[in-house]
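Section 3.1: Structural characterization of target chains.
Under the original work plan, the team committed to producing a structural model for every single-chain target entering the pipeline before any wet-lab resources were allocated. The record below documents one such target. The sequence was received from the expression subgroup and is listed exactly as submitted; it comprises 202 residues.
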Amino acid sequence: MWQGLLTWIEGVPNPLVYLALGAGAAMENVVPAIPADTFVVLGGFLAAVGDLHARWVFVSTWVGNVASAMVMVWVGRTHGSTFFEVGWGRRILNTHQMKRMTAFYARFGRLAIFLSRFLPGLRAVVPVFAGITRQPLVPVAVPLALASAIWYGALVWAGTVAGHNLDRVLAVLGRVSGWLLIPAVLAGGAALVWWWRTRHHE
């Protein structure tokens, strides 16, 4: 399987491969079901067995993912609050809940953004609500970029040491993601409890 992929990629200019890896990593913030981690590890693997450079694999995937996350922050800032002020949006989050969420982000937002970058699912949701609550862009961007750099740097390294055992590395990544899904689910459950308890309280 991977030999066929390598044979195909040999005919593609390296800049286009970097662009494709960056675009794949960026998609996660728009479609959370598309994991950026796989593209990052794959890029590291291609750097180990092909003529890509690990540093540019890291840069392309990191920049792509961080840029798309900040785009979603901007979307949240420009359209999110309006959505939750009328119609079905108001049924999801009322004015009282929005104020509570804004206060949470003002107090714990940097830590929440940093930690969420390591958790599947949440990493695509937390930046959007940072935008919806209109948090300043720099305090959002710094922990987001730092955590993504740490995580993607580790994944690129894992890909480079995989050699021809990419299947094994992806299997390990799947298990790690499974374990990281536990705190993500717990955090999601806590958010759901908070939503239910604050729904009818002013």
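The longest helix spans residues 166-198.
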